[in-house]
Specification:
Largest sheet: 5 strands, antiparallel
Strand order of the largest sheet: 4-3-2-1-5
Number of helices: 2
Number of strands: 7
Strand content: 35-45%
Structural class: mainly beta
Shape: globular
Distance between the termini: 30 Å
Helix content: 10-25%
Oligomer: single chain
């Protein structure tokens, strides 16, 4: 094992669910405001997962008041309180950048079937 891996291993989180690009997730983020902390929820479609180990990040995209908003989160960060998987999307690519040009119903994901999820 690499020395860097030995240092990073205790900091990796194991309480996170499995999710892939195309899934709709609800990310609960800790936000510090005016000397206190609160939880802010960011719900959208995962358009990419990048990196590995402690440096792994994922990007979530949502439409807010007609404007596309993307936010990149470090996966193993303590600022993430928890991640909920709302629905699983059926996609054929790892990076879903083409969703940036889609409007309305064209930007929706097909959902994975329940039978396919139990087999996988």
């Amino acid at each position: 094992m690499n020395r860097v891996d030995l240092v990073e291993k205790p900091r990796l989180r194991d309480d996170l669910p499995e999710f892939t690009p195309g899934d709709t997730v609800r990310v609960h983020v800790r936000v510090a405001e005016a000397g206190r902390e609160r939880i802010q929820v960011f719900q959208g479609v995962v358009i990419r997962r990048q990196g590995g180990g402690l440096r792994e990040t994922f990007t979530v995209r949502k439409i807010s008041f007609g404007v596309g908003v993307e936010r990149t989160f470090p996966l193993h960060s303590p600022t993430i309180a928890r991640i909920e998987v709302v629905s699983r999307g059926r996609v054929r690519r790892a990076k879903l950048y083409y969703l940036r040009e889609r409007k309305g119903k064209a930007g929706r994901m097909k959902e994975k079937r329940a039978a396919a999820m139990t087999e996988a």
